[in-house]
What we know:
Layout (H helix, E strand, L loop, with lengths): L7 E10 L7 E6 L13 E4 L2 E8 L3 E6 L1 H6 L7 E7 L18 E11 L2 E8 L12 E4 L2 E4 L2 E5 L2 E8 L1 H6 L10 E6 L1 H11 L8
Antiparallel strand pairs: 1-2, 1-6, 2-5, 3-4, 3-6, 4-5, 7-8, 7-13, 8-12, 9-10, 9-13, 11-12
Amino acid sequence: MFTGIVAAVGRITHIEALGDALAGVRLNIERGALSLDDVQLGDSIAINGACMTVTAKDAAAFKVDVSRESLRCTVGLDQPGEVNLEKALTLADRLGGHLVSGHVDGIGKVVRFEPTGESWTLVVRAPAALGKYLAFKGSVTINGVSLTVNSVEDLADGTDISINLIPHTIMATSLKHLKPGSGVNLEIDLLARYCERILTASGGGKPL
């Protein structure tokens, strides 16, 4: 589990194929300001919102193996560049954002990204299948960043959500590099997922 509070911006520096076209890749990621002192092999780190397992590390970087399926379901893990990093949550940590699983639910597309006063307005079009999980003042994770939805508009080809980004978020994450047309990793709020299951399950079990 994660919180969606980015701890550091790292950089994918090298991508190594693990086999044929059906196999995944191994990423070498410079840690940036992320401390790896307490990270063990097998620990989880969210990379642009996708939970990955550390397979090797040194003082300056770590490696993860990404399956072909994970590459299909995400963006930003198949090319060099900056990525948002967060180590897995411990029970002693503050929950500064919201509960994030690190499982990407879909890929959105940036519709608009522009300064508004001292902040920035980010509008992302989510796939139509995710629209019902997005709510005004609800939580959403974009490229691993916990954010609050300011508005929701359902369209024929998806759902547009508008988000206000404060200067600190721009400075402390890789969201600063977004532009219209950029793909982003989306994770819906866990509570929305469970509410849907409770309301739509057709099992014959009786309430406890």
